[in-house]
């Protein structure tokens, strides 16, 4: 009996911790639905779910994973990486476009399994550390994902370098305080490409911006992000959600390698225009 009590006490913090992590009940099914991994362009691969975009960037010195989807997606991502012919444990760097449960859900587990270094926009570090509890829009008493402590804090335009690949982090706040995009160059057998993984600044709260004391600069931050995103130049753009860049119209499982399908400046501009219109309407209502 004494041994059992000691064993329970050792595990008790784990049980309490697990009970305090809960994803929202209304999480869309397509966020966890499987999707066949594929090569997008050069050394950039899609390894996410049907709608939650996760990207593997390969290099001779190890690989980089951007976003992980929900907590249940860790195994799926591992299988997708293997299906492409890469080793899961070769992931050396972990990144995210925003500190929300739909992009960080499996990050703590993948970090533990691979030993990779977690790098995050410094403005999202605290929210990530408490598992989303202090998020101005989605926060609450319980964490929505397992907390993660960053190994490196990133500032606007900081480079992330590995094996000859250099990724520039671009601070695009509003959706979260540390939402960010990533810009990199890659090449294939025919040409080189500038790739943008954009964090589109959608609005996630019904509250008036003036009624969010936890984020007093939110309106200004959104305005900055729209301005910055509209000025960027690139050949190919991707985003945090497959639906945001019309992945399923541009690619079907089994399609041949076709980077040109993602060369869509018009779609990018239209998406930004629609999101900014929503933002301006919200500002006008205040």
From TrEMBL:
The keyword Aminoacyl-tRNA synthetase does not apply. It comes from the Bacteria. The keyword Transcription does not apply. Gene3D superfamilies: Ribonuclease Z/Hydroxyacylglutathione hydrolase-like. Residues 1-18 form the signal peptide. Keywords: Signal. This is Subclass B3 metallo-beta-lactamase.
């Amino acid at each position: 009996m004494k041994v059992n009590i000691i064993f329970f006490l050792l595990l008790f913090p784990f049980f309490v911790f697990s009970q305090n992590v809960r994803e929202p009940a209304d999480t869309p099914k397509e966020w966890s639905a499987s999707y066949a991994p594929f090569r997008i362009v050069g050394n950039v691969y899609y390894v996410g779910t049907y709608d939650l975009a996760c990207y593997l960037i390969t290099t001779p010195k190890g690989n980089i994973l951007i976003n992980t989807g929900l907590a249940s997606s860790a195994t799926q991502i591992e299988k997708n990486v293997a299906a492409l012919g890469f080793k899961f444990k070769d992931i050396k760097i972990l990144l995210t476009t925003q500190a929300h449960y739909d992009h960080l859900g499996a990050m703590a587990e993948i970090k533990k399994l691979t030993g990779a270094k977690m790098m995050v926009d410094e403005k999202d570090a605290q929210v990530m550390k408490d598992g989303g509890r202090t998020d101005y829009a989605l926060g609450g008493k319980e964490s929505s994902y397992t907390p993660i402590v960053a190994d490196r804090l990133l500032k606007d335009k900081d480079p992330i370098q590995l094996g000859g690949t250099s990724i520039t982090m671009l601070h695009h706040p509003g959706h979260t305080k540390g939402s960010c995009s990533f810009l990199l160059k890659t090449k294939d057998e025919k040409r080189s490409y500038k790739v943008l993984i954009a964090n589109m600044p959608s609005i996630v709260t019904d509250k008036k911006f003036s009624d969010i004391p936890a984020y007093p600069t939110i309106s200004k931050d959104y305005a900055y992000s729209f301005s910055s995103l509209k000025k960027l130049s690139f050949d190919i753009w991707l985003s945090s959600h497959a639906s945001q860049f019309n992945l399923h119209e541009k690619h079907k499982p089994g399609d041949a390698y076709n980077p040109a399908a993602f060369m869509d400046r018009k779609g990018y501009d239209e998406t930004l225009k629609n999101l900014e219109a929503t933002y301006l309407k919200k500002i006008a209502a205040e």
